[in-house]
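job 3f2a | input accepted
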Amino acid sequence: MSSFPRAGRVARGYDVDEVDAFFAQARLAYERLGGSVPGPGSGTGSGAAASGVPAARAGTPLDVSARDVREASFPLSRHGYDVAAVDAALARLEDAVARHEREVLVARSGREGFLEELAGRARVVTARLRRDDGDRFARAGGLHRGYHVGDVDALCRRLRGYFDDGEALAVDDVRTAVFRGRRGRRGYAEGPVDALLARAVEVMVTAPD
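job 3f2a | predicted structure (209 res):
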């Protein structure tokens, strides 16, 4: 069973059964490789200490991917698990799985091959980031809800500084980014923005420490 704190009696949190089922699946994936799901404090370092997988199995893929973790979503229910606590655990798990995926890539392609593949992923992201403010994404159509253009462009400029100039940017600043809403042509369409940020996070968590 998971051991997350609960939301208040009348507050809404993540559905307990859904969260427990997801983390049970992740735990099983680790146990199949003789490892254990990294807990709090496992977000730094490298190798088995960071990925949760024994060094002898570093080249063996897990049955759960960093994308699976990143895209995990749970319904809300009264007195469910505290949202912030679960989100923090998901972030730690994604980091650990991404480190293991990096180990798998290095074992398969060598360090140079891994770096070349990572650079290719980064180029896809930076090609979009280098567009002018206001023109990075398609606009939301009609009365559809979109993201505030200025908010998104501000984060994109920070991401461009990270990728192009090595400026500091924490992956959690991208994961937890929140944008004001705008309808129709006044906002960027949400789907393309979410997709690019997911790709950026994927590169950031997989990059060498």
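job 3f2a | The chain has a mean pLDDT of 86.
job 3f2a | closed
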